[in-house]
Design a protein that fits this description.
- The complex is a heterodimer of chains A (313) and B (251).
- Chain A is of the alpha/beta class and 313 residues long.
- Chain A has helices at residues 5-18, 57-72, 86-95, 105-112, 121-131, 154-160, 190-197, 212-219, 233-237, 266-278, 281-291, 299-309, and strands at residues 48-54, 76-84, 100-104, 136-138, 148-152, 176-179, 203-206, 225-229, 241-242, 255-260.
- In chain A, the strands form 3 sheets. In chain A, strands 7-6-8-5-9 form a 5-stranded mixed β-sheet. In chain A, strands 3-10-4 form a 3-stranded antiparallel β-sheet. In chain A, strands 1-2 form a two-stranded parallel ribbon.
- In chain A, strand 1 (48-54), helix 2 (57-72) and strand 2 form a beta-alpha-beta unit.
- The relative contact order of chain A is 0.17.
- With 251 residues, chain B is mainly α.
- Chain B is built from 12 helices and 2 strands, in the order ααββαααααααααα.
- In chain B, a hairpin with a 2-residue loop joins strand 1 and strand 2 (23-24).
- In chain B, helix 3 (26-58) packs antiparallel against helix 8 and helix 8 packs antiparallel against helix 10 (192-221).
- The chains are: A alpha/beta (313), B mainly alpha (251).
- At the A-B interface, helix 1, strand 7 and helix 8 of A face helix 1, helix 5, helix 9 and helix 10 of B.
């Protein structure tokens, strides 16, 4: 998932200074030079699980859910949430600075193997298990998915009788599509729409990555179809309709716990698999909605409430 | 290929001059960029110049100049733009960009006009009144021509800033040269950084070009008696003996 909103302001500044720096093909990459050098210290005690998360709310929430459930089982945990992007936290799993992190199957697979082509949930999951290094493992995947989807308003869906992306075929040439600027080029963007469904939209409007601009544009009919993430609470709030993707144009992004193999005891596995089994995309939308409510509740509180209601003990 | 070569090859690729991801190429985006800039500067000038003249001439409300000019300068344009777009709806994105850019252009125009009028020698104004000029004539025929270099200086500063900042229009789905910066960022390592830097170079080049045009306009519009000291000195060198100047200066 590209949560780049915050980065764009910096990017504009960076663009102006860029001519000054030479060489590297990727001048904005912010990989830390060496994770886990002098600072990471000795590997944590084997009985303690250090839970990390990426720096966006849903990831932190999932980490809190894992943390709450493991704690209930009497397992000692430590939380290191909102670490950063995958480039930052992924090396930490190998050097012992974190042991467990909530992940998404498709993007994790892409991170390990850039040329992976699998898109359906099971294929992606199997490929991911093979691609992971021996010291890391993923537990059961959840049916909950946070992935790109083509979304339309309820009125549009009713009027044109749309259920799946396939149904767009006769209408796309009269529709304006809104999404992140890279979509016309991305393999699962316009080239994928054309290849998998033979649809081409009339026009493209460059907005944000499923953020407030995209939601606003869809709501006000500036665009008639848009790329929004499946767990976005804006979908339920605005009665948007997520079109089905039978050809798996967008790679599956099932929520999955990524854990250091040495920490994956049977007890830990059982707890985390139980969570994955109970979590659904609809639940995740609901929890994200609670998380972004005006009173800004603590992620730990939202997680604890869900654990209690799901009967996970 | 280092980044300079990448930027150069992006700028010289004819493909980029004929099309971009959302349609036409660089010339179209230059025109859109100038359009957003021009409209914003015009509106800002219609607000700031009369206000600056009034405040400068009467001396009333000069706290406004200090207050407005300085506080407007502190507004982060990108944040203001997003706020406006979300409040007004993205259908009114052009209007939102214009408001954001106008708020950026007002401070230098207002400050330039106010300072220009205010700094007119009071003796000159008194002399004009003594000649029987009405207030309107004092403003129109004395203060304004004398203030023109500073007003145009404010206009140049405002235009420069607006051209540089108009890039943010691309952030809310509009066109202009910012398109390349924002899209380049989104494309990332896939040729995006050359596009980003190429867009930035084009914005800088456009700003310089417009600055040169405005400098030319200023030279034509400002009364010869008020031209810069360097120019006057050149005139003096031609017309006067060096000794004579020394004598004049010491007297």
């Amino acid at each position: 998932m590209k949560r780049v909103l915050a980065g764009v302001a910096t990017a504009v500044v960076a663009a102006l200074t860029m001519t000054a720096c030479g060489g590297s093909s990727d001048p904005l990459s912010n990989n830390p030079p060496a994770q886990g050098g002098a600072t990471s210290g000795p590997v944590a005690k084997p009985d303690k699980i250090i839970i990390g998360s990426a720096n966006f709310p849903e990831s932190a929430l999932l980490a809190e859910i894992y943390a709450g459930a493991l704690q209930k089982k009497g397992i000692t945990i430590e939380k290191k949430l909102n670490i950063g992007n995958r480039e930052t936290y992924y090396p930490g799993l190998s050097d012992g600075s974190i042991d467990l992190v909530p992940e998404y199957t498709g993007v994790l697979l892409q991170h390990i193997n850039k040329s992976a082509t699998e898109t359906s949930p099971d294929e992606v999951y199997e490929a991911l298990k093979k691609a992971l290094p021996a010291n890391l493992t993923v537990l059961d995947k959840s049916s909950a998915e946070d992935k790109d989807a083509i979304v339309v308003t309820k009125e549009t869906a009713d009027r044109l009788n749309l259920k799946s992306i396939e149904d767009l075929k006769p209408h796309a040439s009269q529709m304006i599509f809104g999404g992140p600027p890279e979509l016309p080029r991305r393999a699962d963007g316009f080239p994928g729409f054309k290849k998998n469904y033979d649809i081409e939209f009339k026009e493209f409007k460059a907005l944000d990555a499923g953020g407030p601009l995209t939601v606003n544009a869809l709501k006000t009919n500036v665009v008639q179809a848009a790329d929004i993430f499946t767990t976005d609470p804006a979908i339920t709030v605005n009665n948007f309709v997520v079109l089905e993707d039978p050809k798996s144009n967008f790679a599956a992004q099932n929520v999955v716990p990524l854990i250091n193999a040495s920490k994956a005891s049977d007890e830990v596995k059982q707890v985390l698999n139980q969570i994955s089994a109970k979590l659904t995309t609809e639940k995740l939308i609901e929890l994200n909605g609670k998380l972004s409510a005006p009173d800004k509740p603590d992620a730990a509180k939202v997680a604890a409430d869900w654990l209690a209601s799901a009967g996970i003990s | 290929m280092n980044i300079f070569e990448q930027v150069w090859s992006w700028l010289t690729d004819p493909d980029n001059w004929t099309r971009s991801i959302n349609g036409p190429g660089i010339p179209y985006h230059v025109l859109k960029h100038l359009q957003y800039t021009g409209v914003a500067i015009l509106i800002a000038a219609l607000i700031a110049v009369p206000l600056g003249i009034y405040i400068g001439h009467t001396g009333r409300g000069s706290f406004l100049v200090v207050g407005i000019a300085n506080s407007f300068r502190a507004i982060p344009e990108l944040g203001l733009l997003i706020l406006l777009v979300l409040a007004m709806g993205i259908a009114l994105a052009v209007e939102a960009v214009t408001i954001a850019l106008v708020s950026l252009a007002i401070p230098p125009l207002l400050a330039g006009t106010y300072a220009g009028i205010r700094n007119v020698d009071r003796d000159v104004v008194d002399a004009a009144r003594g000649m029987g000029m009405r207030e309107w004539d004092v403003v129109w025929r004395v203060e304004l021509p004398i203030a023109l270099p500073l007003i145009l200086g404010g206009l140049r500063a405002a235009t420069l800033q607006v051209i540089a900042t108009a890039s943010i229009a691309a952030f809310v789905s509009l066109d202009g040269l910012g398109r390349f910066v924002i899209d380049g960022r989104a494309f990332g390592a896939d040729g995006g950084y050359a596009m980003m830097a190429g867009g930035a170079v084009l914005i800088a080049a456009l700003a310089i070009a417009v600055e040169l045009v405005l400098a030319g306009v200023q030279r034509l519009a400002v009364s010869p008696g008020l031209q810069t000291r360097r120019m006057r000195r050149r005139v003096a060198r031609v017309w006067a003996q060096p000794k004579l100047i020394t004598a004049e200066e010491s007297s």
